[in-house]
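[#protein-structures] MJ: dropping Large ribosomal subunit protein uL23 here for a structure pass
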Amino acid sequence: MNSVYNVIVRPVISERSFDLMAQNKYTFEVARQAAKGEIADAVEKLFNVHVEKVNTLWVKPKNKRVRYQYGKTRTWKKAVVTIADGEQIEIFANQQSDED
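AK: finished. structure tokens for Large ribosomal subunit protein uL23:
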């Protein structure tokens, strides 16, 4: 992969991802061909944190219907990144404090 911006597509914002933040785990949508090492390097460079572990999984498509057309959502790759204790990613920290 060329750039760290090509590896990480977007952060995943959901109730489950916010619950995982209490355990220092952050969830991202990543490029389909990204390896765990590339994901760890990208998160470390972008957010200036130390990555301890990366878990990846494929999100399978769901059946959807729009009026009379049937189809499926896209398949995408998700990464759950565990960072070192005492560190946090600022983008998520701001949103997390708003909910308290």
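MJ: nice. Helices lie at 4-7, 15-20, 36-47, 90-99.
AK: one more thing. The chain has a mean pLDDT of 90.
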